[in-house]
Structures
1.
Amino acid sequence: MSGTLTIGIFGPGKVGTAIARLAVAAGHRVEIAGSQRQESLQLLLDVLAPGAAQSRSVGTLAARSDLTILAVPFGRSVDLPYTSFSGRIIIDALNYWPAIDGVIAELDGIPQGTSEVIAARNPAARWVKSLNHLGYHDMDEHARPSSDPTRRAIAVASDDSDAKRFVSKFIDSVGFDPVDAGSLADGIHLQTGTAVFGRELSKAEFERMLVRPVSAAEPARRADAAA
Ligand SMILES: NC(=O)c1ccc[n+]([C@@H]2O[C@H](COP(=O)([O-])OP(=O)(O)OC[C@H]3O[C@@H](n4cnc5c(N)ncnc54)[C@H](OP(=O)(O)O)[C@@H]3O)[C@@H](O)[C@H]2O)c1
């Protein structure tokens, strides 16, 4: 990975702008696409993520970006331009929260994690699950240089080892220790209700928890907690 990346983000909300702030601080270029109704998005970005630019062409954002990050509510994610993701590295940072998203029939009774559901919308994209298990405020407050012994870990799960390596370097560049969390299917162990979700963990702690979850119960496949 060369030093400066172009990062495309779908969703200029709490987590999208937090990731944008981290990426701008790390020296990356950031473009953000909002929903149709966000007419004054650049004004919002100038306040919440100075240095980030509104995407003027949502359909080609992924093609122009070295790395694309999905940060829209799961229930709104069907509207994204999936065909434009083919061959691109895409981070799925989404969580399914019924309290926010409503109950989604697509997820009813399926054994897969939500990242597999998203990935099935374009299997030709290079899907990576990451950045979903920590709060946006933690992104702001817990980023640290690599020399800091209190650095926090962020998991990276994917079937594409090159994409996983690429995203791991990005995670490192914005102030967190990347942890290899296995395949995209293994991303189910990062979802809401799992042992690691929302926990402040070092890399070593995270790796231990992934191997031996604190809860003996099968990690929740479905969100059942309030947002
Ligand atoms: N909040 C967190 O701490 C956190 C942490 C990690 C992961 N996540 C996950 O990240 C996702 C976003 O969470 P959030 O808290 O940032 O939500 P949020 O504050 O509600 O922001 C979502 C943003 O996405 C925009 N949006 C909706 N549909 C879009 C589309 N098709 N294209 C582009 N933008 C679109 C929304 O625009 P409108 O305002 O016009 O609807 C809004 O600006 C969720 O899946 C959540 O579970 C959240």
2.
Amino acid sequence: MINTLTPALFEKYPDAHALAQANPAELEPMIFKSGFFRQKAKSLIAMAQALVERHGGEVPRTLDELVQVRGVGRKTANVVLGNALDVHEGIVVDTHVTRLAQRLGLTTNSDPVKIEQDLMEIVPRDQWTSFANRLIWHGRRVCHAKKPDHDHCILAPLCPSATLVQLPSTRRPSKRPPKAAEGTKIGKAAKAVKKVVKKAKPRSGR
Ligand code: SF4
């Protein structure tokens, strides 16, 4: 939905300066279909004004600066930095990354910041962005929240959750790790990732 709205939006407001001066009454209908359009219009304008006032209309290139901008949290900051600016300060942890990292045995945490730290330890920095993107696509296409398609999953040989028929959704994370985490297979995927990482030549990734 967002991708269908942005072409017209960017045409009317091609940069932060234009968006900072937007009239909410004109902006709201353009983002109406995305839901919460009034609040989002306010946030978009405030975000653009902050970019103009504090950063000369440019998107800052550090996580610390980005999360100070209205409407931008750590997840969004990592998306923007990694995908738009090729700056890798962290790993995007959304609902898909959370679910897959837990199922694959790469973390036993449910807090996004702790999950991010666990993943940053085992994934080479220059792959932080692509790793999250791959988990997100795998979560959308194969490892669904309610009905993971174990039978068609290429990660099944490595995955400690492959034999579970029904897995809990991570929308309301349990304080306890998934059942597989208590078994002996947990951590096999993490070890496999670490093995690959050891062979990889570390780069700054910027
Ligand atoms: S084997 Fe199943 S639980 Fe593991 S990643 Fe694949 S679909 Fe998800």
